[in-house]
Amino acid sequence: MVDKVIDYYFxxxxxxxxxxxxxxxxxxxxxxxxxxxxxxxxxxxxxxxxGMDDPPERSALHRAYGKRDMQRWAAFYSLPLSDAPRxxxxxxxxxxxxxxxxxxxxxDVAPLVLALPRxxxxxxxxxxxRVTLTAICEECGLPGDILLRAADDTxxxxxxxxxxxxxxxxxxxxxPSYVVGDEIFWGQxxxxxxxxxxxxx
Length: 201
Hints:
- By secondary structure, the protein is an alpha+beta fold.
- 54% of the residues lie in helices and 10% in strands.
- Strands 2-1-3-4 form a four-stranded mixed β-sheet.
- Helix 1 packs antiparallel against helix 5 and helix 4 crosses helix 8.
- The protein starts with a strand and ends with a helix.
């Protein structure tokens, strides 16, 4: 039996990660596939790709369109979405390392990968705050105090950095990105193509 894998490169403060997670899980169930979760440091990626830790500022028209597009997708998926999240922009580093730590311990990280960006984009919660992160872990049935401590472990830090190195080595340049075999699909609006790639794997 072929092992169908989606290597998933993402960050925890992205609205697109929140909006696409349910659908990604549905696809993997239909296709008898599995997701390998790889949280990355997007700022580090941008620094190494274009020499700055943030992409160039988008025009007002571009920003307005992006906001409207998020609203369309939220309505399509019947998901709540804040027009002006209280805690955004927000650093995702600690939250990402919590996911890495949970994955290291063999936990199912899918609930966290949904809950953390949802906290930003639908619940006005601060995922850079340790108390909030601990609570979110507990809500997902995971030991928050243990994961917060493990998030600062050298092994977790190295794993987080290695995810970013691996993403760049494979040609990933943005998030969320889904890699099936050698094919990269950037953006949750490419999930139809992800499913097709799995179906023909």
